[in-house]
Amino acid sequence: MLAATRKLFAAIETFKGEAQGMADKLLGELRIGLSEALSDEVLQRIGEAIGRFRRRNQAVQIELLSAMPAELERRLLQDQLQLAIGYFSGSQTALDYQPLFDERQRLYCGRQHPLFDRETPSAADLQACDRVVHPYRFIAADEPWQGGSSSARCEQVEGSLAFILSGAHLGYLPEHIAQPWVERGGLRALPGKWDFTVQFRLANHRGHPASEAQKAFADDLLDAFGE
């Protein structure tokens, strides 16, 4: 019954897309997922894409939803979203992924941590530290620093930040999240070869026909991030 219901809704969306094309006006609804804790610059680009789309001949209801990457992929697979922006696993064969932008990740410690005043901590120094298990489960294998024991785990960036600010743990954070705390003297990015970048991508379900509105919005997003 559930599968049949999903097929029915998919058929309705396809019909809407065909009808709007005939009317030369974009209609229907768009449900778009966003990763949490995006930078101001990224949000500005998304805003520009929305502005571009609104200047088209359209009457589309847009819903934005913020969630963790695994949740965004799940919602795409279950037809609860048409598009999503995040740092995805890339392993879902039912989804198409297009690169949008890169985000820099750095390894941080808090003011009370023993390495805060250490000029150049060695790999052995880091190995003796307790780390926060990185909230970005899909990219943990890309983290240059894999050592140390861990008694701290968190899915959200805010929780990881709290662990690191405690002075008891080292952990990775997006640079734009940590920078205000660095400027206030509460965090320090550890020098060395510990930085890496994460690629954020635009994802959609490849098995479901995209409406004209979805195609147009995806084009506007790609244009906004391509400038």
Keyword list:
7 helices, single chain, D-Maltodextrin-Binding Protein, domain 2, seven-stranded mixed beta sheet, 227 residues, elongated
- Number of discrete domains: 2
- What is the correct CATH architecture of the largest domain? 3-Layer(aba) Sandwich
Looking at this structure, what is the CATH superfamily of the largest domain?
A: Periplasmic binding protein-like II
The Cα radius of gyration reads 21 Å
Mean pLDDT, rounded to whole units? 88
Got a strand count?
A: 9
Helix content: 25-40%
Q: Sheet with the most strands?
A: 7 strands, mixed
Number of helices: 7
Uncertain spans: none
Distance between the termini: 45 Å
Q: What CATH first level of the largest domain would be assigned? A: Alpha Beta
Q: What is the CATH fold-level name of the largest domain? A: D-Maltodextrin-Binding Protein, domain 2
* Beta-strand percent range: 25-35%
User: Structural class, judged by helices and strands?
Assistant: alpha/beta
Shape: elongated
Sequence of secondary-structure elements: HEHEHEEHEEHEHEEH
GO molecular function: transcription cis-regulatory region binding
Pfam families: LysR_substrate
Keywords: Transcription, Transcription regulation
Family: Belongs to the LysR transcriptional regulatory family.
